[in-house]
Amino acid sequence: ECSTCHGTGARPGTKPTTCPTCHGSGTVRVQAGIFQVQQTCPHCHGTGQVISDPCPDCRGEGMRRTARVLNVKIPAGINDGQRIRLAGKGEPGQRGGAPGDLYVEIRIRPHDIFERDGDDLHTALPISFVTAALGGEVTVPTLDGESTMAIPEGTQCNKTFRMRGKGVKNLRTGDMGDLFVHIEIETPVNLSAKQKDLLRQFDESVKADGEKHNPRAQGFFDKMKSFFTQK
């Protein structure tokens, strides 16, 4: 809305006058053959008023284009593509009329840690092979901050754990989704000579009883051996 004329479109100190053509109705009747039809007044363009002395700032439009910054409250659990309606924050109506509404369409940026699936969240958690083998407690990032989670002995890569109620709030019901933690076993790098030697000793100690310690790997090699033997 123009701050000079307050939306009237008329120069300060003056007022719009009633349209002499339609007498303020905004419409006129015209003859179309044997019928009379009603149409928008061509003089006032349907407003019912005319401005003889327009506002110098908005040139009679009653509004000016300006940039504004609005604070928008984002409800928890909103989804990508949803719209928020801000009543009365749209373009002002002509000649002091009621303003329209502003619709804000939400676009959710990808997150570095979490991947969203509806109300559920997914995250990858790297752990050491020692923790995977012996078990222990690990720290897991959640929307509420850090939480602890128990890792059982013998946890395998790609194992998924579910933390109930640690997901996203449902916008309609208020229920919380779950957080799914996908385990990634990290292979150690930059080992010293002593550390490598210890790993070799460990490897030798389990080779004699490989099926007990590495059942999946042993089963795979047995299948491969059987496959080539049959040929």
From TrEMBL:
Zn-finger region bounds: CR-type: 1-67
Organism superkingdom: Bacteria
Entry GO terms, CC: cytoplasm
Keyword Ubl conjugation applies: no
CDD domains on file: DnaJ_C (cd10747), DnaJ_zf (cd10719)
Record has Zinc as a keyword: yes
Domain CR-type: 1-67
Pfam family, one: DnaJ_CXXCXGXG
GO biological process: DNA replication; protein refolding
InterPro entries membership: DnaJ_C, HSP40/DnaJ_pept-bd, HSP_DnaJ_Cys-rich_dom, HSP_DnaJ_Cys-rich_dom_sf
Compartment(s) where it occurs, according to its Swiss-Prot or TrEMBL record: Cytoplasm
Coiled-coil ranges per UniProt: none
Cofactor(s) listed in the protein's UniProt record: Zn(2+)
Keywords: Chaperone, Cytoplasm, DNA replication, Metal-binding, Repeat, Stress response, Zinc, Zinc-finger
GO MF terms, alphabetically ordered: heat shock protein binding; unfolded protein binding; zinc ion binding
NCBIfam families for the chain: PRK10767.1
Subunit structure of this chain's protein: Homodimer.
PANTHER family: CHAPERONE PROTEIN DNAJ, DNAJ HOMOLOG 1, MITOCHONDRIAL-RELATED
UniProt similarity note: Belongs to the DnaJ family.
Protein name: Chaperone protein DnaJ
Organism: Sutterella parvirubra YIT 11816
Lineage, highest ranks first: Bacteria, Pseudomonadati, Pseudomonadota, Betaproteobacteria, Burkholderiales
